[in-house]
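note to self — DONT lose this again. spent like an hour looking for the file last time. sequence + predicted structure for the chain T wanted, 230 res
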Amino acid sequence: MKQIKFLVLLTISCLAFFKGSCPKDNEVDIDKINQNYFIRYNEAKLELYTEATFKLPSGTEVELTSPSYIKLNGLPLTKSLIGSVYTLTVTGTALASNYQWEYNDNQNRVYKNEINFNGRTISFLPLPDSVQRTAPVNISWNSVVQTDENVKVNIINSVNDSTLVTIEQNVVGATNIQVIFSSYVPSAVNKIYLQAIRHYETGIQQKTPSGDGRIKLDYYSKRDSIKLSN
């Protein structure tokens, strides 16, 4: 829902500024374009998703025109229906050692920016099969929170697969959070799923002459289940 609202707001800003659509890259100063990349790997689904946006300093998105293109590891990203967000989803795929975006602007200048998931994956340490819903429980994972990172844990209702709450840990060096499940889980729910998300942000390596950019990474762990007792 948040992503939809974000895209709608971006589209409205494009309509207001350019009276019809987001500007094309042959209508603006491409030397000032900021590159922004997001990549997510979901271990539970074996799914990779990425998106790229190209923005003016004002924040307005820019649409690519031929010969411009954006690829991830050689696979082309395609423009979404809303705004000028370029996306790619690859299902049933193992995690690669490295990912590289290749942006070719409309003057055939190529910018390559990359990231890898080394040290950015996450998994839970062994959890008990059953816990008391009113007792504090430490949920631990396999590696510490690093600078420019945070770890979130989704507590998921096993009945309807909805996320009951997301708890965030952003203290550098942390390896756990403590939870009392009765604070979040309805009494009628006796089983929950846990899923960890490691989030990391960094700058890009190759910028346009007067531009900037960011890379954001999310890694979703496999799910673990816990039974709750009174």
